[in-house]
Design brief:
The structure is a single chain. The chain is an alpha+beta fold and 205 residues long. The protein contains four helices and nine strands, in the order βααββββαββββα. Helix 1 runs antiparallel to helix 2 (74-96). It is elongated and about 75 Å long.
């Protein structure tokens, strides 16, 4: 594991050493057999407000194109129409894509799908994972905004809302953070899976 926890994640002495009632750090001690798949997700309905603003920008661009005479001042009008439509599309699709995030973990990999169409998508094999950490409070400030974020010194993140998150520690020294409800359960599950892969038997067997 890294000497310093990722920004927005709790330091080792700031989260419950057992992360609930399942697998303690390192993956040992689980008494129940792991389910085949863990599913989780998170939603931020505030993003729909931003999507509405984007739709309004597009509507304004269309209205300008339809209602204008196009007989004079053509260049400024074209720039206004194109600017409104482009800004509207950027805001609309940029927000809708991160209204919701779905997380799926099985014996082989963690997969994250954003939005209701599942794009962008990220799949991380568990072979690339060193450990999993529960972060009780992640905010957009930690990553420079909402959405799919990247910081060269830290790694990547999918941030759709403030609050708890799952932090994967990867072999390359970076992290992958995703805001997800019931992140503690995700940490327990991933630690259990890592224990199985390393020891060849379920944790606690």
């Amino acid at each position: 594991m890294r000497d310093h926890p990722p920004e927005g994640a709790a330091a080792p002495d700031q989260y419950d050493s057992t992360v609930g009632d399942g697998v303690p750090p390192g993956g040992g001690g689980a008494h129940a057999e792991l389910p085949e798949v863990w599913h989780g997700g998170a939603t931020n309905r505030v993003q729909w407000l931003l999507a509405g603003i984007g739709a309004a920008c597009m509507a304004l661009g269309v209205e300008l194109a339809v209602d204008s005479s196009w007989t004079s001042s053509l260049a400024p009008l074209v720039m206004s129409v194109v600017g409104c439509v482009a800004a509207g599309l950027l805001v609309l699709f940029g927000t809708i894509a991160f209204v919701h995030v779905a997380v799926r973990v099985d014996e082989d990999a963690l997969e994250v799908r954003c939005g209701h169409i599942g794009v962008p998508r990220r799949r991380i094999p568990l072979d690339d994972v060193v450990g999993a950490v529960y972060a009780p409070q992640v905010t957009p400030r930690h990553w420079g905004g909402w959405g799919y974020r990247w910081r060269p010194e830290q790694g990547t993140a999918v941030v759709v809302r403030r609050g708890e998150a799952l932090v994967l520690e990867l072999h390359d020294g970076h992290t992958f953070t995703v805001t997800v409800d019931n992140a503690e359960a995700a940490v327990r599950y991933i630690r259990g899976r890592l224990s199985v892969r390393r020891n060849g038997t379920p944790a606690g067997a």
